[in-house]
């Protein structure tokens, strides 16, 4: 390990950045140095601009992927290398605002029925029933189930924050049936190695397989179930602030985007077209006879 990488890892650890963030930032800086075949200390703003254009025009990466690389370089040059130009000279790409595609309740049920594995179906059901992120669901432990208070404990979710979410009676029954069949000991959803939780990739592959089997045309990822959880709660009349707490969102603005997709808000207002007096239907078109020459 180079001294620079060690220093950057120490800087991230001091600031208590999540482990996944640390790994991603180190990988991004390594790819950046490999592209120029020079150490980052010898590179500057123009090199960063060249690299961003390479990611955009040659690699054809999405703004979110370029933003990850940019975040890593900003940290490197501002915190670890302490360059005064760091933030000002490293532009962050603007991400396009996209609304999530929402599954209906019937589509959620149909999708879950298409999941063939009991473990995968139970995990994906928990994501929908409690609004979990996939990383939160994969890291659930047996001890996180509080059937007395009907709560699930989310240990160190995004932003390294603990929170409690609802444990519905139906989900509790589902978890109990799964436990009787699988008998997990530490992790609720163990991976190939019993002392390790199931991986995100394994959940993603199971989701893709079920998506194909379901025949649902809408795109579906594990996160789609979390989107559906929030939207269905909102449509049922749950307060936005309550949904924010359940989802573990830092900002209410993040949760409020579901107002844009919930049928209870989008469809609650009558279209002015429906208020117009009924207009008589126009007479059917008379086919024009063919011209004769």
Automatic annotation (TrEMBL):
The keyword Magnesium does not apply. PROSITE patterns: CB (PS51900), TYR_RECOMBINASE (PS51898). Gene3D superfamilies: 1.10.150.130, Intergrase catalytic core. The keyword DNA-binding applies. Pfam families: Phage_int_SAM_4, Phage_integrase. Residues 1-81 form the Core-binding (CB) domain. GO terms for biological process: DNA integration; DNA recombination. Belongs to the 'phage' integrase family. This is Tyrosine recombinase XerD. It comes from Accumulibacter regalis. The lineage of its organism: Bacteria, Pseudomonadati, Pseudomonadota, Betaproteobacteria, Candidatus Accumulibacter. The gene is xerD_1.
